[in-house]
Amino acid sequence: MSTILTEADASKALDIAPGETIEIRLKGNPSTGYIWESSETVGAELTESSYENYNTQGRVGASGTFWFRYHIRSSGHIRLIYRRPWEPSSGNQSQFSVTIKADRGLSLAPSSPSSTLALIILGGAVAVAAWFAWRRAGGGTLGTDAK
């Protein structure tokens, strides 16, 4: 499932787990020469972008929505700029940015060819002791090599 962001979400810090998808939808009118561009992305991969025209009546110059889909890999940020691509950057363009905090969830790291060590991160505390207690109690291996 995607988290959908709009102009109302600009400058927010969001908790999004690694592996999740966000979709940013911003209003614009490319007939004026202005387009939304992904200008800086850290911790996310742009996987798809497009423009949807609201114009269902055949009117020239109608506005629509630019949308961008990102796959979250780690904490970072995304910044988009509304500009005319052929004009030099003035620093006064409209911008949309969000900060991504993706430090929650389950982190898996391979420890050997025959097993996988699971480091469970809960509220920022690493629960390695719980994993060792589980293994001492007879817990099986984790990963694709478990039979």
From TrEMBL:
InterPro entries in the cross-refs: Chagasin-like_sf, Cys_protease_inhibitor_I42, Prot_inh_I42_chagasin
Transmembrane segments: 116-134
GO MF annotation list: cysteine-type endopeptidase inhibitor activity
Domain called Proteinase inhibitor I42 chagasin: residue spans: 17-100
Recorded superkingdom: Eukaryota
PANTHER family tied to this protein: AMOEBIASIN-1, INHIBITOR OF CYSTEINE PEPTIDASE
Protein name as it appears in the record: Proteinase inhibitor I42 chagasin domain-containing protein
Organism: Gonapodya prolifera (strain JEL478)
Higher taxonomy: Eukaryota, Fungi, Fungi incertae sedis, Chytridiomycota, Chytridiomycota incertae sedis
